[in-house]
Specification:
Blueprint (H helix, E strand, L loop, with lengths): L3 E5 L6 H10 L8 E2 L6 E7 L2 E7 L8 H18 L2 E7 L6 H11 L5 E6 L4 H6 L10 E4 L8 H10 L13 E6 L5 H9 L18 E6 L2 E6 L9 H5 L1 H14 L2 E7 L6 H12 L3 E7 L10 H13 L7 E3 L8 H16 L4 H14 L12 E6 L6 E6 L7 H15 L7 E6 L1
Parallel strand pairs: 1-4, 1-5, 5-6, 6-7, 8-10, 8-11, 11-12, 12-13, 15-16
Antiparallel strand pairs: 2-3, 3-4, 9-10, 14-15
Helix pairs in contact: 2-3, 2-8
Bound molecules: guanosine-5'-triphosphate (2 copies).
One guanosine-5'-triphosphate (GTP) binds next to helix 6.
Length: 433
Amino acid sequence: MSNIVAIVGRPNVGKSTLFNRLIKKREAIVDSVSGVTRDRHYGKSDWNGKEFSVIDTGGYTVGSDDIFEGEIRKQVQLAIEEADIIVFVVDVEEGITPMDTEVANLLRKVKKPIFMAINKVDNAMREADAVEFYNLGLGDHYTISSINGSGTGELLDALAEKLEDAPEQENELPRFAVVGRPNAGKSSFINALIGEDRNIVTNIAGTTRDSIDTKYNRFGFDFNLIDTAGIRKKSKVKEDLEFYSVMRAVRSIEFCDVAILVIDATRGFEGQDENIFWLAEKNKKGVVILINKWDLVEKETNTMRDFEAQIRREIAPFTDVPIIFISALTKQRIFKAIETAVEVFENRKKRIPTSKLNETMLDILKQNPPPAYKGKFVKIKFCTQLPTPTPQFVFFCNLPQYVRDPYKRYVENKLREIFDFKGVPIVIYFRKK
Ligand SMILES: Nc1nc2c(ncn2[C@@H]2O[C@H](COP(=O)(O)OP(=O)(O)OP(=O)(O)O)[C@@H](O)[C@H]2O)c(=O)[nH]1
Ligand SMILES: Nc1nc2c(ncn2[C@@H]2O[C@H](COP(=O)(O)OP(=O)(O)OP(=O)(O)O)[C@@H](O)[C@H]2O)c(=O)[nH]1
């Protein structure tokens, strides 16, 4: 299952504004992960019950006009190859520009669903101006105002119809995605893992959407590796582009059950690593962190402990994530890495019987209830785990609106302590009863 929506268009048409609006719809649950080094946005949202990832292209580095245009063309081409749905944003204030025409020419040949969002249609007058864009010869048009939100609902309704439903994934093999920054050692890890079997990679990049899995049996475990991009041929263009690595990570994370995040020990846990981490968490995927190239690190007594502590600080409150120190080069703890990923996969499927959950949790929560709010006391009466693919719990109480985030975190920590959800994001709801 993959629902990646890419927003393309020339600079200043309102792509980022539209992106924010698409994501803000569900601000309480999701927010955007913005690239630290550059202004790249990707986020997770849902509409009419369907989930999707949104990637905002752009964040172009300003150079000469030629370079600039080349950069846009590259991003559009990548969006065409890698995204499932494309939203092409144009600007009614400016009308059709040569760059719009160029983008439209690229898009016209594409079989994927394309939505043309004619932006900045803030009032009825501009509705008439929008007609001009029919000349670009692209199918479906939507007049929107990203600033005031008008028209975006219709756009999303139409878009949601093209999104795929989340598939049932019971009883399938674990799907692992090896993700991380360029040069972290992802390919080396995969090669160390599959060793002489590397020829069993039969999928060719980009042939079909579903060819992203490859099945392996190693160390007695059966699993699928998602998007073993590193062992495939890479094109120079793709390697150069930060946009490509983001797109790749989003896609393989969407497909996986557990994200194996490879960090370069010699560089530490940096902004981009954190982005990928939170992306997995927002997608409710299991996570295992591998600190690779451990052979290169000069070790003193507390090196490992300090390294680990620093990462746990960064990823709080989701701190019980396995962190394993490996070397893809010497194959140190490669087995342990896979074994742990399998454990996390099992944790993610874990179902706590309602009776057991109530027996343990209600007592604990009674002894440590949410703080009174405006003189009112919250009483938690009952709890249950939802029948969702990933752990989600509902706590029924008299005044759910008074339960604050710190208390939710407390409850989450208790659940983690008692039931072991190591490496797995869990979601907690309070509802009225
Ligand atoms: N009037 C009006 N202005 C808008 C609308 N949407 C965006 N803008 C304005 O257009 C300008 C550009 O918006 P951005 O969202 O930054 O455009 P962008 O396409 O992401 O630009 P790049 O990051 O340069 O690619 C900003 O000043 C926005 O406030 C709209 O619906 N109506
Ligand atoms: N010393 C040491 N070097 C390593 C280790 N793992 C990878 N390397 C080296 O790090 C460099 C990058 O490794 P790759 O496996 O290509 O990294 P990658 O994450 O797949 O990189 P991209 O394909 O660019 O995303 C190579 O020169 C590897 O030989 C390790 O555990 N120890």
